[in-house]
Amino acid sequence: MTGDVVLEAVGLVAGYRSGRRRSTPVVAAVTAGLRRGRLVCLLGPNGAGKSTLLRTLVGSQPALGGSVRLDGTELAALSARERAQRLAVVLTDRVDVGLLTARDLVAIGRTPRTGWLRSLRRDDLEVVEWALGAAGAADLAHRHVDELSDGERQRVMVARALAQEPAVLVLDEPTAFLDLTRRVELMVLLRRLADETGLAVLMSMHDLELAMRTADEIWLVHPGGRFQAGAPEDLGADGSIASAYAGDDIRFDHAAGTFVTDEQRGGLPVRVDGDDVAVLWACRAAARAGLTVTPSAPHRVAVESGPSVGWTLTGPGGATSTGSGFAALVDRLKDLDRPLIPPDIEK
Ligand SMILES: Nc1ncnc2c1ncn2[C@@H]1O[C@H](COP(=O)(O)OP(=O)(O)OP(=O)(O)O)[C@@H](O)[C@H]1O
């Protein structure tokens, strides 16, 4: 792989050794490149091997096979300090930071650049302030890290990583303990950093829909350890995401782009047309009503955005029913047996 790839795995096998001879591969045949300015989400069901792969990619766990290159150099050949000058890692574990303020903690992020012995110069302090600002944590600078909420703390940890001025930022489940608003905020922040500073971001996460909406690329670990990389839409449309997450009670409906539960599975098919935003929500409404959204189906819902979304449900023979608002749409879709109004008697 060439060009602006900053972190590259070639034939990487991540897993565990037990004893001298025995090894247990968890994720195999990983060949992928993380480019400058790209946001990549690492997805996969519980226990598939996301953390194992991330730890191997950042060098905190030895590879069972293949190689990892950072800026074209074998990771294993770089000293810890050389790695930290190019690669920053944010883990979910809560580390005890004593009575440090957010600014103190972010300043520690300069250590790979300054060494332990040199004190911070004016330009280091400028980077610390930049990192606090870039991570949306400037207003937290004087606060003790112990007192921060999970979301605030996460922003400070990102600021600390940015203070290393890395080319690559790797985060292990950074959204795990955040509520939906904070999760979206963190994704927007990482997206902006990738776009504006050229930072390459790789993050593991469980929030599949948020990842699919934000990432440039998805790295997907299937149960059993098969690895796949691709654009979110490609992996969604070809059923790869659905197959990786196929479980007993829940599955990913790749036509609707959402998870559906057992009760929603196998409902009557319906097609949804209209403008982008309205279609997205209408697909969700159809799934909630127990229907399966597919590109071609005898029943069709046309939606139109407005103060209240207007909809027209058309049946196989051209009979229709109209209404506004998603509550009414869900009620109508749940009751598809009720006759629609034939075209000739509709006013
Ligand atoms: N230290 C270890 N030694 C041996 N096997 C391990 C070790 N740590 C994890 N595993 C195994 O490796 C597999 C992958 O675990 P990993 O934590 O990487 O998955 P994950 O996709 O990150 O899971 P989750 O989404 O639940 O965090 C699991 O079967 C797990 O039991």
UniProtKB/TrEMBL annotation:
The lineage of its organism: Bacteria, Bacillati, Actinomycetota, Actinomycetes, Jiangellales. CDD domains: ABC_Iron-Siderophores_B12_Hemin. One of its GO terms (molecular function) is ATP hydrolysis activity. Keywords: ATP-binding, Nucleotide-binding, Translocase, Transport. This is Iron complex transport system ATP-binding protein. The keyword Translocase applies. InterPro entries: AAA+_ATPase (IPR003593), ABC_transporter-like_ATP-bd (IPR003439), P-loop_NTPase (IPR027417). Residues 7-248 form the ABC transporter domain. The keyword Thylakoid does not apply.
